[in-house]
Design goal:
EC 2.3.1.-; aminoglycoside 3-N-acetyltransferase activity; alpha+beta; Aminoglycoside N(3)-acetyltransferase
């Protein structure tokens, strides 16, 4: 990656083996690579915590269900993510920015951080007018550090561009004029290792992936624009098969 680049990083700290300084060392290395004019972006998702524990129940007034729903926390800017140590290191950095979606926020550091995170729709939160559409516009690079394309959140953006795609319904609590309400929003469905690994493997045959081993971690760097254009077409064929 070059100085001034915008990168979206997906990582597994444990894949590197022992790292002196841990996640903070990895983050410092990323920021050094892109320089002061570059930007580091990471998913900071919270959907495993801020979600309806009984999404299929529409019967109001069931005490056990209402109590479980009442225990689900509200999202706030400092809410921790369970997506790994490097993402948590970004959230701990002074001056970082974070988008406001209660389940699938992204965090960013650097020159384009505010632009990337300034808006995110509730519906199709990784689709049009999302941080990922801005990353595409900025011709970002996708960096996989010790993980595969099954962890590549940008592929959800690619699928959202298709007229026919898998769907799901997000449910999360939110404050509206001081009142706690449950919001429902449609989005692309989960892949669950069905197509994303295959798309990544097919992309690798195009000869446009840069690979390197760092520590014990296999790492990949791909340019988002050609990759997402390829992925959308490939996913379209796979989903219509």
């Amino acid at each position: 990656m070059a100085r001034g680049a915008t990168i979206v990083a997906h990582s597994s700290l444990s894949a590197f083996g022992e790292v002196d300084g841990g996640a903070e060392t990895v983050l410092r290395a990323l920021r050094k690579c892109v320089g002061k004019t570059g930007t580091v972006v990471v998913p900071a998702f919270t959907g495993d915590v801020i979600t309806d524990p009984h999404p299929d129940c529409r019967t109001a007034g069931v005490p056990e269900i209402e109590a479980a729903r009442a225990r689900v926390p509200l999202f706030h800017d400092a809410f921790p993510t369970d997506m790994g140590a490097v993402r948590s290191a970004v959230l701990a950095e002074p001056g970082r920015r974070r988008s406001r979606h209660p389940q699938v926020s992204v965090a960013a550091l650097g020159a384009a951080a505010e632009y990337v995170t300034e808006h995110q729709p509730f519906a199709y939160a990784l689709g049009a007018d999302s941080p990922f559409s801005r990353l595409y516009e900025l011709r970002a690079q996708i960096l996989l550090l010790g993980v595969g394309h099954n962890r590549n959140s940008f592929l959800h953006h690619a699928e959202s561009l298709l007229p026919v795609h898998r769907t799901k319904l997000r449910r999360f609590p939110y404050l509206v004029e001081g009142e706690r309400v449950w919001v429902e929003a449609p989005d692309v469905g989960n892949d669950d290792n069905t197509h994303f690994p295959r798309v990544g493997a097919d992309w690798a045959t195009q000869g446009q992936t840069r690979r390197q081993v760092i520590g014990a971690a296999g790492c990949e760097l791909v340019d988002a624009v050609p990759f997402i254009d390829f992925a959308a077409k490939r996913l379209g064929r796979l989903l219509s098969a």
